[in-house]
Amino acid sequence: MSNLQNQSTDLQLNATILPEKKRSKLNGTTIGAFFVSILLFLYFVAIAYPLFWMIINSFKDTKSIFTSSWAMPEKWLISNYVEAWNIGVSTYFLNSVIVTTLTCLFTVLCGALCAYALARFQLKGEKFFLLFVSAGLMFAPQVALIPLYELTQNLGIYDTYWALVLPFVAYRLPLSILIIRAFFLSIPKELEEAARIDGCNSFQIFYKIFLPISKPVIFTTIILAAYFAWNEILFSVLFIQSESLKPITAGLLVFRDALRTDWGVLMAGLVMSAIPLIILFIFTQKYFIRGLAAGSIKG
């Protein structure tokens, strides 16, 4: 009888202690989540507010920008965007679209083919090639400015789109190859074997099976390449001299000198230069996150 009373007492104690433990865990998790949310919100404000400040000032005249920089516009000057577009932003914008599109196209095509070879073929010196590709991540673009300048002169591509496209592709390829290769390694070999039984060759397996499955990592590669090609300014200033070929980053420098003190129009040009990447990331962010996660499974 005493044993039964002891057991019932223990059960009652456990019944009271366990909910308290759960409550303490829940409280700790809630507090931690609250502080993380606060930090993320502050980080969002630090990132978003400069963009918001640039947007509201793009609708003001120069006097309003200097006298009430942090206030909302009293009169919204849509004409700033029209003037910026007509003065030259349209040409710079089109040049950036061409350079970025070509960079993304060749980066994805060459990177995917190289990653497919490294992931699926038993090559002699495979580890050496992989190490060679990885070594490309260590070289900063600024280190190779003089050799690249001479190379573009010798190849006859100086002051052309290719003077930007080829270096951009070269500097984006190492990371793209590693990310895509890691994803290709996670694809079951049974799919490839079934395709070979159906009569597909290696190239058909690549573009009929591997590429459709790899949409997330392909979008990740496109975003990374587009971000680099659109925002890069050093190569654009050094390798492009013609006004009609300048991308938007280099063009806005000339744009600033031409406008002198018309900061409202310049702000409008800056907003137009930022919008494409923002739109691209908004519509492809789910693929971007999935691609980064999938591309880090295997190495």
Automatic annotation (TrEMBL):
Give the main localization category: membrane
Tell me the membrane topology, using the record's own terms: Multi-pass membrane protein
**Location of the protein in the cell:** Cell membrane
Q: Does the keyword Ribonucleoprotein apply?
A: no
Asked if the record carries the keyword Transferase, the reply is no
Key words, A-Z: Cell membrane, Membrane, Transmembrane, Transmembrane helix, Transport
Transmembrane residue ranges: 31-56, 92-116, 128-149, 161-184, 205-230, 263-283
Q: Where is the ABC transmembrane type-1 domain?
A: 93-284
What top-level branch of life does the organism fall under?
A: Bacteria
Sequence similarity? Belongs to the binding-protein-dependent transport system permease family.
Q: Enumerate the PANTHER family for this protein.
A: ABC TRANSPORTER PERMEASE PROTEIN MG189-RELATED-RELATED, SN-GLYCEROL-3-PHOSPHATE TRANSPORT SYSTEM PERMEASE PROTEIN UGPE
In Swiss-Prot or TrEMBL terms, this protein is called Carbohydrate ABC transporter permease
